[in-house]
Write a structure and sequence with these properties.
5-stranded mixed β-sheet, binds S-adenosyl-L-homocysteine
């Protein structure tokens, strides 16, 4: 905490709302949502999650819903700060886990710098839900010794990831889980191919855990065709690796293309 503010001035809960299915909320998340007087809600938060909010709570949608551009980050931070300082119980609801590609780190820093206490409540991140949705384990004692969660979307102006290096790591037996990868599919496919065979299994899971969930099982080489044919798009996670082999035996839902 900033030395100028030894006693917290207000408190904000950064709460993971999970991938969409309200049953995947943690008990802590439900308690925080119930206690909130103001909720700032991201786009990817499932509607069912808001059933736990008090009737009197003020709910502010700060995503792109309704065709609006998403609310600028600085504005969201200002709003949280203002409401917390006014004594409101502010819950910032984020899809998945607040600290996995959710800008939760930036928000926590900004609030703490102003002397506001921050509580973080974990949520089930989309990558976990996506794997489970298709019946794939993310690790396996025989062929997957770890998992990499990466984003296909670099901050504007920043260099993206080196996909060939990630492909080489995947070839060592690490499952690769890619968030925000659909728009970058051609780039990441080309990079990964430098290190992985085209036959490497790949799954695309859209809207994991929601009623509208859709998925397809393909290969690294089949990625672009599959995205086009199945019309899969955001929000989606790509899973790459040997853990997907034999998925039919593991109960891959029938929509999956072979
Ligand atoms: N904090 C979130 C990630 C936010 S980044 C988390 O932990 O899950 C937004 C990206 O997450 C989306 O572009 C998509 O890649 C992924 N995502 C979020 N919800 C998803 C869902 N229900 N199914 C598939 N992917 C999802």
């Amino acid at each position: 905490m900033n030395a100028r503010h030894d006693t917290p001035r207000g408190r904000v809960w950064l709460v993971g709302a999970g991938p969409g299915d309200p049953e995947l909320l943690t008990l802590k998340a439900v308690r925080a949502i119930r206690g909130a007087t103001v909720l700032l809600v991201d786009d990817l938060v499932g509607d069912g999650v808001l059933q736990y909010a008090r009737k009197s709570a003020r709910i502010v949608h700060v995503g792109k819903r309704g065709g609006c551009r998403s609310t600028p980050q600085a504005f969201i931070e200002q709003l949280m700060l203002r409401e917390a300082l006014a004594g409101e119980r502010v819950v910032r609801l984020k899809g998945g886990d607040p600290f996995v590609f959710g800008r939760g780190g930036e928000e926590a820093e900004a609030l703490r710098a102003q002397g506001v206490a921050v509580e973080v409540v974990n949520g089930i991140t989309a990558g976990l839900a996506a794997a489970t949705a298709i019946g794939a384990p993310l690790t396996h004692r025989e062929h997957a010794h770890g998992v990499m969660f990466v984003t296909g979307h670099a901050k504007d102006g920043a260099a993206g990831l080196d996909w060939a290096v990630l492909g080489a790591a995947a070839a060592q037996g690490l499952t690769l889980v890619i968030y925000m990868g659909v728009a970058q599919a051609a780039t990441l496919q080309a990079g990964l191919r430098a290190a992985l065979p085209g036959s490497t299994p790949l799954a695309v899971v859209q809207s994991a855990s929601r009623p509208e969930q859709r998925q397809a099982l393909t290969t690294l080489d089949g990625l672009l065709d599959t995205l086009a044919r199945e019309r899969l798009g955001s929000p989606a996670v790509l899973v790459v690796g040997e853990v997907l082999r034999g998925l039919a035996a593991l109960g891959m839902p029938e929509r999956a293309a072979a």
